[in-house]
Amino acid sequence: MNTITLTLTSPFHHGAGSSGNTSILRTEDVIQADGTIARVPFLSANSIRHGLRSALAWHTLKTIDAQDGTLSKPIIDLLFSGGAISRTGSETSLDQYRDVEEILPWLAMLGYAAGSTITEGTLRVSNFILQCEENRDRLTLQDSLKRAAHYRGETFGTRVDQSTSPVARFIQAADELTGTTQMIYSTQVLSTGAVLEGTVSLTPAATPIHQTCLDAATTLWAPGGTTFVGAKTATGYGRAQLTQSNPGDPDALANLTELLLAQKDRILPLLESLVSAK
Amino acid sequence: MSTPVRVTATLDTPVSGVLSHPFMLDGPLAWAYFASSPERQPYLPVDIDPDDAPLPLATWHMYGTWGWCTSQAVYEISGYTQTEIRRPPSDLAFARYTTEKKHHHGLGPMKARDTIIPLTIIKTMAWDVASTDPDALADLCTRITHLGGHRTIGCGHVTRWEFETGTPGAWENRPMPEPGVTGTFRAPYHHPMRRVTISAEAI
Q: pTM (2 decimals)?
């Protein structure tokens, strides 16, 4: 098992909808020793899994030199989102699963849906929980913890109204507008410096190549130990420094790349057969 | 010859899908056996009778069927909560690698989804079993890291397994076959070929 800590180096937002102009931070219920329930911000396991899957999908398509405009939507959906059930029936193809293990093992590691079957992966990811007093019983580090509220904050942004700027001369109706429609919006965040902690592990059903895929995915997801998590990452939110209790094989990414290149001619036919409705 | 054992799992995340039916320990034990076995199958074809794992539990036989001597899980619910699973379509990759003109976020199998999963907060779950090999039982249990559904996102995470001397016969706290009843009495419980109907005239 690999315990990962993410130390935030910019504000972090993981959304649970909005109230007015404010984006609300997602929380989970945590039972306290006195029986009360605390609502504590966290980063969902599903979000981490998507980060790993997306990193592997991009790496695969770039490694096999997939050309723009040459794939179908179900193939992209299978690679980036895990696919969908595409037919009814009770027959499952064990041969096809063996092919996935041999040709594109990271898909088997993460799990996928194809044909009439959902195939469980061997990867287990926990929610990444805030290092705070409310989570004390579930943390590896239990010193100097503060209440979750200590780590919460709010940022704001402004959506500039161009009708009041020099750009307005290009807007046909600018003269007709009275007043500004400039909008201020705010975002609930975890502050820079807060630490999120979670685990990534494989079940006993995992093969050695699954471990290689997981190590490679971690490297792709956090190159140089830095990654972006949660929402609004395009505007700088959620940058985090990653530390691992059990860093994987440093050669894993090279090994996975070598495997993908060796299977290059078989990957797209495999994906086509997986999403086939027949 | 079997030994009564009380098995207790301590959990640190909410559990999914255990309230709707009695939760016997032979389900996770069989999974743990096959997960680390060369005979492992990623999924079980529904039209083939599944194998039985050689579990370190005594067996009971009744009305022509049989099962493992394990009670259903006993637990106290601390609270109810939920989690969301979001599935945004990969529009960027769709645009780059396909020639499709549009992608509809509200229709079809590739639509955007935000699924709410109901969860139950349970601190400990306990089972009474009759074990033929308590050491092997402990070994199998420690391979089980999660219980219930949605395990891939960390639901039902087990932090500790504990074993103590149990009460003889306590494993009988579970559904048992009765004349005229249809049920599933041993793992894999979800498999359609495990369902058996006991004749109303059975003795």
A: 0.89
